[in-house]
Amino acid sequence: MLIQEKLFLFFFLNRNSSGLVSADVRLTFSEQFHIRHTNYFYSFLSENERLGSMPIRVINDTIPGKPPRKINVTVGGSTVLHVSWLSERTQQMIENWGLRVIYKAADNITRSVIVNDNQSEVKISKLQPGTTYTIWTVRVTSKGFGLPSKARNITTPHQAPQDIIIHFRVLLINVSWEAQLGNKSSETSRNLSSVIENSVSN
């Protein structure tokens, strides 16, 4: 197995305060290490929460390239999505360079944006209204791309139709100008305004 050829395994057992057994495991990889070699360990630690047939709860770990666990996606408009996340700050021997936020729609064309490692949010714009997008993230490390996060699906709202404004100016042939028409609160002005409004709306 490729993984076995590239690591040395060392562990010891302890008794915790509740009388349960904790296993402290240390894996040392050879210099040919690639980030993909941690996929197996991340899978059983963080996703399956099992070590072989034994259920486990992770106390802490330094697995490199882990994606953020809490990803939040909100709608910022018919063409904009806001993506934010919480990252665990643990000491790593492999440098994290940034985070790649990946998204795709029904056309299956994958697009992405890469942000600095110290960022915790990004705005994705120029999207299509009324479209469902699948969004996930991966770490960008000095040893390659990290592990993918769980994907989130979100639909942008349909774009609201814009108001259509029609403007026209007409001459009221049978109406002569009176001084009271210049006063909008006068009875003459109100009566004429009412006639015009009813004529247009009906």
UniProtKB/TrEMBL annotation:
Fibronectin type-III domain: residues covered: 67-159
Residue ranges of domain SEA in the record: 160-202
Q: Which InterPro entries match?
A: FN3_dom (IPR003961), FN3_sf (IPR036116), Ig-like_fold (IPR013783), SEA_dom (IPR000082)
Matching PROSITE patterns: FN3, SEA
Q: Name one Pfam family in it.
A: fn3
Q: Tell me what this protein is called.
A: Fibronectin type-III domain-containing protein
What organism is the protein native to?
Pocillopora meandrina
Q: What is the lineage of its organism?
A: Eukaryota, Metazoa, Cnidaria, Anthozoa, Hexacorallia
